[in-house]
Amino acid sequence: MVKDLVANSPFINLEFIDSGEILNDSIVEKLFDYYKNDSGTVSFNLNRDFIDYRITPFFSTEQINELNIDYFDFDSLSYFQISEFLNHHTFTSIKIKKSDIAVYIQLPDNYDSYLKNLNKKNRHELKRKKRIFEDKFDDFSYEQSKDEIIFDEFITLHRNSIGEKGDYMTEDIEKFYKALFEENKWEIHYLKHKDSMIAGAFVYESEKVQYLYNSCRDHNLDEFNTGTYLNDQLLQNSIKKSKQYFDFLKGEEKYKFNFGGEAHQLYDLKIKV
After folding, report:
1. Which domains does the chain have, with CATH numbers?
2. How do residues 52-66 score in pLDDT, each as one tens digit?
3. Nearest in space to 235 (alpha carbons), one of 253, 258, 254, 264
4. 118 and which of 55, 68, 90, 122 could share a cystine (Cβ 3.0–4.6 Å)?
5. Residues 59 and 86 sit within 8 Å (Cβ to Cβ)
6. CA angle 272–21–96, rounded 5-degree value
């Protein structure tokens, strides 16, 4: 199950790593595209704050010796990836630590079944919040787009977010998102009301999984549950497209579990060769 979430994700694709080049420390030696080597310590390329899953690491004994690798310091790995890596070598010391949690939903064949799978409280709350939204916005639309104008609207809405979320969208991060947006399978999904975006999501769609990489909303409309309504539309969209999973990715916010999410534990792995 979690193997599908990792294997279908954009994060194991070299295009994603290349798009994040603007966010990297140029001083550190890049190694085999996916890694970096800092004085004998090998870790993943691209900061963990921007990437939710990693490729399964692999180094041959010959590579370890030729590159004079003393330590491995990996983050954001699923346990099956750690097992695969450790099966190939014997090391001096190994430390495995629980780190981030990603949250995903295994999707049924139809939306009615999805609602039935929610517990009574969460199902009631979802319906109640959707009614509040629909009573307020009788002329809204749910849309998805590859249009640059829509991308710019998303960035503006994100920058207007409260606190750290608004500060997050720096010029360099905007360039990173723009590079991703220009690739296949990335789109903006959004709620539109009177020609304005009131909530938006930056989404990657693979054959089996739809990934919610980031989202934002107009906080002046929080009392009308725009974020909840957009997430519900994303789930319905995923089900209609016969996706097997919807992945909220890293972060164990309560709302993800209210939607029926399950925890995907990730780990950090530190190794002395």
Report:
1. 2-102+265-272 (no CATH), 108-243 (3.40.630.30)
2. 999 999 999 999 999
3. 258
4. 122
5. no
6. 25
